[in-house]
């Protein structure tokens, strides 16, 4: 792929997170039922996972099902998504192994149906020895509940005297998140054009670069992720500092009447 050759191998992101949105709209545009959009979306997942593995991306985190989706969508759609997840795992674990991909999950997965959790655990165990891309599926995930769970864990440590309140650091919060062992995303992609975060990884995306495409998730392929990465490589990350090459003002050399105050 020509675009792959244009990428700077020294500046590949370590962690790409994706909000996979637009399955319903994809189906609607074709006068199909929403569930067919979800089914097509599951195909996109495997294409993108395999591209991630091919370029050696260490972490890929996909927002597959939010807590709010679980609460606010009709039971029939939620049930279909659960069936689709089971099918996705059944059909793709072999390909994950062929591609050296390890799968894991974040979110309130304990609240998912037993037979879904059983399949999830099976897939995690079947791929646990793979050393390539780690595919993290966010399932029944909400960032505010993740933070709430983290604060509860942290408060328990303070209450028991293990940790002093004044000693609490950002790292202490970080190690209580579902993503404790993961780096923060470098790049967040959202498909379908919506300019919002929808309760995804709120703590972790503090300095993440954001890329929104109008392409609907079922039409999204590996090459579109590479386009997003190419765009990312043109960005300058500042983390609150100055732009590259900017010289700082030499305040001492300014005449006193040009100084504020
Ligand atoms: C994303 O597609 C998949 C899930 C949220 C599970 P949507 O189902 O949100 O599709 P739109 O946004 O209605 O098009
Ligand atoms: C975000 O998409 C959740 C997932 C992609 C799983 P939504 O379709 O649920 O987000 P909103 O409702 O448009 O914010
Ligand atoms: Mg949506």
From TrEMBL:
Q: Which UniProt keywords apply?
A: Magnesium, Metal-binding, Transferase
Binding site residues for Mg(2+): 21, 209
Alphabetized InterPro entries for the sequence: UPP_synth-like, UPP_synth-like_CS, UPP_synth-like_sf
Membrane spanning segments where?
none
> Looking at the Swiss-Prot or TrEMBL record, what is one Pfam family this protein matches?
Prenyltransf
How it assembles, according to the record, is: Homodimer.
Q: What does this protein do?
A: Catalyzes the condensation of isopentenyl diphosphate (IPP) with allylic pyrophosphates generating different type of terpenoids.
Name of the protein described by the UniProt record: Isoprenyl transferase
């Amino acid at each position: 792929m020509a675009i792959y050759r244009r990428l700077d191998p020294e500046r590949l992101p370590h962690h790409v997170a994706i909000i996979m949105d637009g399955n319903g709209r994809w189906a609607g545009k074709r006068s199909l039922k929403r569930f067919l959009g979800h089914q097509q979306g599951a195909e996109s997942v495997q294409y993108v996972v395999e591209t991630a593995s091919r370029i050696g991306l260490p972490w890929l985190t996909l927002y597959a099902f939010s807590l709010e989706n679980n609460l606010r969508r009709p039971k029939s759609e939620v049930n279909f998504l659960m069936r689709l997840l089971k099918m996705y795992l059944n059909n793709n674990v072999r390909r994950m192994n062929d591609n050296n991909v390890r799968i894991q999950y974040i979110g309130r997965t304990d609240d998912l149906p037993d037979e879904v959790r059983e399949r999830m655990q099976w897939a995690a165990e079947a791929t646990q020895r793979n050393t390539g891309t780690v595919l993290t599926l966010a399932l029944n995930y909400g960032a505010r509940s993740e933070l709430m769970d983290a604060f509860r864990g942290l408060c328990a440590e303070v209450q028991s005297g293990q940790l002093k309140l004044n000693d609490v650091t950002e790292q202490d919060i970080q190690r209580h998140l579902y993503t404790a062992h993961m780096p923060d995303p470098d790049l967040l992609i959202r498909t379908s054009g919506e300019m919002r975060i929808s309760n995804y990884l709120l703590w972790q995306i503090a300095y993440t670069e954001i890329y929104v495409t109008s392409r609907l998730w079922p039409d999204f392929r590996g090459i579109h992720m590479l386009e997003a990465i190419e765009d990312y490589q043109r960005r300058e990350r500042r983390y609150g500092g100055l732009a590259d090459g900017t010289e700082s003002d030499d305040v001492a050399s300014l005449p006193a009447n040009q100084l504020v105050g």
